[in-house]
Amino acid sequence: MAASVVTITSGKGGVGKTTTTANLAVALAEEGFKVVCIDGDIGLRNLDVVLGLENRIVYDLVDVVENRCRLRQAMIRDKRLEELYLIPAAQTRDKSSVSPSDMIRICDELRNEVDWILIDSPAGIERGFRNTIAPADIILVVTNPEVSAVRDADRIIGLVEAEEKGPVKLIINRVNPALIKRGDMLTPDDVVELLAIELIGIIPDDENVIISTNRGQPVAFEAKSKAGQAFKNIAKRLKGEVVPFIQLDDKGDFLSKVAGLFKQGGD
Amino acid sequence: MAGWGRTNKQSADEAKERLKLVLIHDRTDLTQEELAVMKNELLAVISQHVEIDPDGVRITMKQEGREQKLTADIPLKTTRRRKLG
Lengths: 267, 85
Hints:
heterodimer; A: alpha/beta; Rossmann fold; 8-stranded mixed sheet; 12 helices; B: alpha+beta; 3 helices; elongated
């Protein structure tokens, strides 16, 4: 099977792109797929620390582009999962070191060797964004239920549509049921109505994400965490499974019935 | 001014209303002022040919999926109403 290239992007910084990339990579690898994730944020390398692989970097993406190493040598294998690899970003270079055609070439080289290629896009709409969009088969736009993040997501969706790339699917991250209950947070339905693209995931606000990032152990490894489950569900939807979305009950809690469905699906 | 959570309108509703307007202008690259100018020019052109009932005019920008739609509802004065009026 030729790999699908999934680019994770957002426009606004700090909405959870890198966390999403790391967790989807873990969740897909746990499903038994061979996964490579690429940090597309040249100069602001971060996917390595979120995955806990920062001490194992020898070569990076720019070394591959400039032929200082073979692609294989830049792929760090995650020791926790057989088939999870990271190609880190260069830390001391800038985004102009890589071109959209370099990214297409690298992904084409990987396509026959792996099942999924996940690319973490940098914030913004400049060169780095264009680099990561160029090879994409599927684009996941991450947003938070906040005005600035939703506005930037809309801009990104517009740019992706103008490039005739896609499909584009939406991940709403840091959804807080208590705030929704009080009427102080946009609901997932509101965000979907405003952005008018297909939803692929709702990630609840979960302190386990911070704890797991502190440890370099993505939350998708934690079977019991709500956010971890939500990332696993996105991985299942990516491979074509139908998994119901989380619902809020009238107290603002996530429905336990649906949480039950999660458990069935997560096993 | 009322404090947080004490306004009549929930803040999420405000966020949604504000975003609706912002997204329309981001997507069409039109400011509120430009939209108003366009509406007036549109009505002026139509008025050259038919008589418009100015009180009934509704010109709005609406979202339909990812498309923006300019909807104009412009009631015309009929010949009979003109005679009577």
